[in-house]
UniProtKB/TrEMBL annotation:
GO terms for molecular function: galactoside 2-alpha-L-fucosyltransferase activity. This is L-Fucosyltransferase. One of its GO terms (cellular component) is membrane. InterPro entries: Alpha-1-2_FucT, Glyco_trans_11. GO terms for biological process: carbohydrate metabolic process. The chain crosses the membrane at residues 10-27. PANTHER family: GALACTOSIDE 2-ALPHA-L-FUCOSYLTRANSFERASE-RELATED (PTHR22898:SF2), UNCHARACTERIZED GLYCOSOL TRANSFERASE-RELATED (PTHR22898). The keyword Glycosyltransferase applies.
Length: 386
């Protein structure tokens, strides 16, 4: 056979295979449930993040300050129950509460170093995200007999049980038996120190930039946080409600554009949504998803779920307003507590939801007084501030 013909045949076969391949891709694309825009978004952001990871020469971390204050001779520990079964938000509450109680009672804060679970969680989950907080703790072995156990915050997740009542306790080593400690009142008096020890690394801030297209970087940014996933099925927490989320976001956009609290108005408002279910967010804001075409009422930037520290870095760098839509989400709480200096937080009224945490929560212990509660009329769809 003429070799030239064979080559032509070869090309034809390759061409046909290619066409069939394209055909299959077309077919396969239809039944996939994920909209193409989400697939592309995830791919682009992932590429951007991985580029930054590779640019190790860019990393110039803050000079380490490891001078810890060791002037107190007495110590305090917490039981750290959230280290067994809690999410990141719960763990952060226990750790920050421990630091806050140490400050209040003028005791050094210890972590029981013989409990391998404590060490594992701190080393694998906490330290890679918040390298600075390790300096706050001492890892020690205190014999069980040498420590005094005391009840504090037993039973209710989000109610403040004032540790000051134990300020004159003479025992050298105190361990508070209790759980959750989900109240800002344990540590709000050292808020700046808390913010500082929970500051993500510079590289994480660079990754967070991947989430926000350049054209929005100077806008006024409103950041709703949504929580679905486990909250939908645990029959305890109230997951984010789509109607509330859309109504509250519309409300905040109008409110910020018009100017509020005697502040100036913000004509360029952009919404960046965080949480653990980007597909849900897409369904809620489909008509507003950020594209360069078509002027819209406002633009919504979707963020794929990457890593909690990237979300924390984003809110800290960009969010002028945060919105908590799942009222008992502790991670949503932390995103707001650590968001940009001067930012304003709004949250859904837990009493008008089915959230069972409401039974344990003292609202004034859980939500800082400067945060603003939103009321939702589920008949008219109207949002109001309290
Ligand atoms: C980052 O580096 C890894 C291997 O070192 C490489 O596989 C990957 O393609 C790089 N990513 C980018 C976006 O350059
Ligand atoms: C520290 O942890 C170990 C292992 O879990 C435990 O046996 C011990 O009682 C703890 N020490 C104190 C003082 O609680
Ligand atoms: C609407 O809100 C009321 C009062 O908060 C509540 O009792 C009712 O169950 C809600 N209805 C729906 C459909 O969510």
């Amino acid at each position: 056979m003429n070799p030239k013909i064979r080559t032509n045949k070869f090309y034809i076969v390759v061409f046909l295979v290619f066409v069939i391949f394209l055909f299959f891709i077309q077919i396969r694309r239809k039944p996939t449930v994920e909209p193409l825009i989400l697939t592309e978004l995830k791919k682009n952001v992932q590429q951007c993040v991985s580029r930054i990871e590779n640019m190790t020469f860019l990393i110039t971390e803050d000079a380490e300050i490891t001078e810890t204050d060791k002037k107190y001779s007495k110590t305090v520990q917490l039981h750290l129950g959230g280290f067994r079964d809690g999410g990141l938000g719960n763990k952060m509450f226990e750790l920050m509460t421990l630091i806050g109680i140490g400050d209040t009672l003028q005791r050094r804060v210890l972590v029981n170093a013989t409990d391998l679970n404590n060490i594992r969680i701190l080393a694998d989950e906490i330290y890679p995200i918040f390298p600075k907080i390790i300096d706050e703790f001492e890892f020690k072995f205190v014999p069980t007999a040498a420590a005094t156990r005391q009840d504090l915050s037993v039973g209710k997740c989000c109610t403040f049980d004032d540790p000051k009542q134990f300020i004159s306790r003479p025992e050298k080593h105190l361990i508070f038996d209790g759980r959750y400690f989900q109240s800002f009142k344990y540590f709000n008096h050292i808020r700046l120190k808390i913010r500082d020890s929970l500051k993500p690394k510079i590289q994480i801030f660079q990754k967070a930039e991947c989430l926000l297209p350049e054209r929005h970087r100077n806008d006024f940014i409103i950041c709703p946080h949504i929580r679905r996933g486990d909250f939908q099925t645990d029959d305890f927490h109230q997951p984010t409600d789509p109607k509330f989320t859309r109504a509250a976001t519309n409300f905040l956009v109008d409110y910020c554009r018009a100017g509020y609290r005697n502040r100036k108005s913000h004509p360029r408002v952009t919404v960046a949504v965080f949480g653990n279910d980007v597909k849900f967010v897409y369904e809620v804001f489909k008509d507003l998803v950020d594209t360069i075409e078509l002027p819209k009422k406002y633009s919504v930037v979707l963020t794929p779920t990457l890593a909690p520290e990237i979300d924390l870095a984003f809110t800290r760098k960009y969010c002028d307003v945060t919105l908590i839509t799942a009222p008992s989400s502790t991670f949503g709480w932390w995103l707001s507590y650590l968001s940009k200096e001067g930012s304003v937080t709004y949250y859904r009224n837990i009493q008008e939801t089915q959230d069972k945490v409401a039974n344990e929560m003292k609202e004034e212990d859980f939500y800082p007084p400067e945060w603003i509660k939103l009321r939702y009329d589920n008949v008219t769809g109207r949002i109001d501030k309290f």
